[in-house]
């Protein structure tokens, strides 16, 4: 074998190695960009801003459309706690839905419109609780705490949207407090 042919083979081997390495790096970059876009979409759909928790949810294959629909259940359950959905509660739920990226024409919005007419069934609330219990088993303790705080924080905003007498006194009714306690129990 001549020195030139040996150099040619070495060069071909190097080129092949670097081509594979470049392809691998490009694939990793695309996956990272896809992951970043998925994290952003899940953050928008869920209202969750903690990146570590978002990554845990993505690792569990929780997707924006799943989280968006499930994130509405506790809000609407609190809004209907006293068997009446008033305008202030409706506006607070719509604002929370908008912050979660749920827009008119989306399937989540259509579900929400139905719940504005009739409260979610007890089976739906039970399904949400089972979903949360299953989900938190797979999260770190910090992730569980963050998810609980974010979900219950949004539910508390709905409860505080109306209530009290002439704007005075406790804005959260006993029935809303009972539903909030029931939601909190799902995280234990």
SSE topology:
Elements (H helix, E strand, L loop, with lengths): L2 H44 L4 H9 L4 H16 L7 H13 L7 H11 L4 H16 L3 H19 L14 H12 L3
Helix pairs in contact: 1-2, 1-3, 3-4, 3-5, 3-6, 3-7, 3-8, 4-7, 7-8
* Overall SS class: mainly alpha
What is the N-to-C succession of helices and strands? HHHHHHHH
- The total count of helices amounts to 8
Query: Globular, elongated, flat, extended or rod-shaped: what is the shape?
Result: elongated
- The count of domains is 1
The average pLDDT score comes to: 79
Strand content: under 5%
Cα radius of gyration in angstroms: 24 Å
Main β-sheet, in a few words?
A: none
Q: Low-confidence parts, pLDDT < 50 over ≥5 residues? A: none
Intertermini distance:
73 Å
Number of E-state strands: 0
Helix fraction, binned, reads: over 70%
Summarize this structure briefly.
The chain has eight helices and no strands. The chain is mainly alpha-helical.
Could you explain how this protein is built, in words?
This protein is mainly alpha-helical and 188 residues long. It has one domain (1-188). The chain is built from 8 helices and no strands. The chain is elongated, with a radius of gyration of 24 Å.
Please give a handful of descriptors for the protein shown.
mainly alpha; 8 helices; 188 residues
